[in-house]
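W.,

You were right to be curious about this one. When I first looked at the sequence I had no strong expectations either way, so I just let the prediction run and decided to look at it fresh. Below is the sequence, 495 residues in total, followed by the output.
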Amino acid sequence: MRAANDNDPRHLETLDRDLERYSNLELATSYVSRPIVGPGLALVFVILAGLAAALFLGQANNTLIVVIAACLGAYMALNIGANDVANNMGPAVGANALTMGGAIAIAVIFESAGALIAGGDVVSTIAKGIIAPESMATASVFIWAMMAALLAAALWVNLATWIGAPVSTTHSVVGGVMGAGIAAAGFAAVNWSTMSAIAASWVISPVLGGIIAAAFLWLIKSRIIYRDDKIAAARRWVPILIGIMAGAFASYLVLKGLKRVHSIDLGTSLLVGLGIGLVTWIVMIPLIARQSRGLENRNKSLKTLFAIPLVISAALLSFAHGANDVANAVGPLAAIVQASASGDFMGDVSIPVWVMIIGAMGISFGLFLFGPKLIRMVGGQITKLNPMRAYCVALSAAITVIVASWLGLPVSSTHIAVGGVFGVGFFREWDAERRLRKARAAMPDRAVYSKEERRRRKLVRRSHFMTIIAAWIVTVPAAAMLSGAIFWGITLVLG
């Protein structure tokens, strides 16, 4: 009887339904647990950063304070990786020149290299340049101010990322340091000349990034795309463009990365960059010629030739971003470590290697855990990108960030990259309008788009532009007020 029941079709249908429920339960469990994995791994990294700080400091004074600061620095670095790095890799992924996995691998390597090799100067600006340490009453007051700045910046970036607001981590940490300084010692504590230079760089850098991106796109269009023989023009110009990238990267690396071994002046580094750029240009000529064989004479074929320079420019931008934005995570942390260890909070900041490693690993880890969604958004939602346009964005942003890091200015890589995207988009709009006017002049009877139709066909989403401007205005005062409130809360608790 039991065997017969087991073979009953109704029994088998019930069994199938039960198995389907279990399958659906497993699927639902995987979807529920997936959002928890990222934050869980991030928490593990933050805890490990605190343990590493305790290990390096041993039984030193104020070990607990530095451990807490290391955890906050790791937390901030994770947010930078989740938020800012998407601006570097978004154009390449949006143009389908890199897969998501390839973009993350390149970003992890070059972000870490930039932070560890060339991140020192901007860290010093964040730690000491924004507020005057001598205005602080004691080392403890200075430490709590830096702690409040770090926590406020991390909380603000986390909140903004959670709600999808495109804010700048650089704006957040600079506002946090300024707000804590004002809360601790009044407005006189702020180095207003440095803040003025930083504020000016926030305005100049996205505009400069947009202009450079538009200029490179004009070069590509006028010298390659609008030529009768596009492939022959690309064979001539693509090696030059790659040489420009190699020369810029080499100059910066020689000037910043080798100064710990041997001091090299600006002129020498530029000559080294010029030499490497020329060698790269010569080496790329036969490679591009070989790659272009058999390609059809149309714009679609050019995408193949621009894959190499786009990948190189994305790597260059990641290096520059690591050099510049590691300061946002470890600048205040470096100041806390030094003040806690020696009581000296007015001298130059010496940056321990383990502090830089926390910043570099945190940025890379944040990208790996939380970056893919934002990479897709940056690569496709502001304006349509192809490999040529994405190359212009990445190269212009890289050059601008490198110059800013060269000068020790903590500019916003977010707004530089977005400025480059808007520069490309607005140039395309201007160029399309120019070509339409020429066509209208040549053939007056030809039907053209109405003014309303041309407005609808805009190539840059104006809503994104207004959102970014609004976020830009809000971030600094919001982070400053939050930091000041945290500092006052700390002083009340500690008496």
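Here's what jumped out at me. The two ends are 81 Å apart (CA to CA). And, maybe more interesting for your project: Residues 25-33 have pLDDT under 50 and may be disordered.

Coffee later to discuss?

I.
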